[in-house]
Write a structure and sequence with these properties.
The structure is a single chain. The protein is about 35% helix and about 25% strand. The chain is built from 6 helices and 7 strands, in the order αααβαβαββαβββ. A 7-stranded mixed sheet has the order 3-2-1-4-5-7-6, sandwiched between helices. β1, α4 and β2 form a beta-alpha-beta unit.
Amino acid sequence: MNTREILMAGARELGIALTSEQADTFFLYAAELTKWNRKINLTSITDEQDVMVKHFLDSLAYLKGFAPAPGLRLLDMGSGAGFPAIPLKIACPDLSITLVESIKKKAAFLRHVIRTLPLDRAEVRDVRIEELPDSLQKGYDVITARAFTDTRTAAAVGSPFLKPEGVMILSRGSEEIVEEHLLDRLLVSVDNKIELTLPFSNYKRVIWVLKKKTS
């Protein structure tokens, strides 16, 4: 099975039907990732099949935690090379995404990818989460984070930007324990815990879905 078949079949296993054009976009993204990775440290995962599984399919697994809809606003904390927000945007073009990445070289890569693919309703903020303007508070339906600190810290810095009843989706290794009682004071609660193994791998992940309380 080639890498394109792995991407398409793996997405189907996760409940996502990618078009041929969307698959082409993923491969363009992978090519730009490889090119830029020679200049700046974006990822240690460079094998093409591993990129498909451990980056792209791992990002698409976040769709287990929310239902995409036109106009839905998504904030990605600590975007790095764009995971999970850019794969989610490719698969769900109606999403509006904001990628937050404070390292300037990585932010430059993200802007380049957005122009190259191209993606509309996508922006990059090259600041720390805590430095986002107050005008963005309570402005997002979904917040995602991948390789971004521990769960409690992610909830603490991200929850002010969630709308009431909005969800924060965190992907973690199966060994991480989330102490739910520590989340109460942060105005979020665990709404769902989804355990899965990524297609074509033995890579186990846990998707935590935290919901913003109304008060």
